[in-house]
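Contributing new records

If you add data, match the layout below exactly. Sequence lines come first and carry their own label; structure lines follow with theirs. Keep one chain per record. Anything else will be rejected by the validation script.
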Amino acid sequence: QVQLVESGGGLVQAGGSLRLSCAASGRTFSTYAMGWFRQAPGKEREFVAAINWSGGSTYYADSVEGRFTISRDIAKVTVYLQMNSLKPEDTAVYYCGTERYMTAQRMGVLPPRSVDYWGQGTQVTVSS
């Protein structure tokens, strides 16, 4: 059973930084892509960033390219999202997701319903 546990959310001022963590367990993730998505109130869940567990190739949404960095620690089976230069429009619940036999790029272009495994989410609030 795949388990994903997010942490690291909080309240930050515009221009600040946060780092989210997603601890994964229950599988050998070598054939998986791991990604971050977000959902603001009244809006649909949207893709943020993804990484291939094997090889480490990454893919980003245009809205966060250059500000956010996704990375993974293979030994800790953890994926991180470093968020810099945060904006009020980044405010959302951030979810970690993973899917087998999927690349980071495909995770970024397919709808979120294509992802089967999700964490519980962590709130990120950016004040202006």
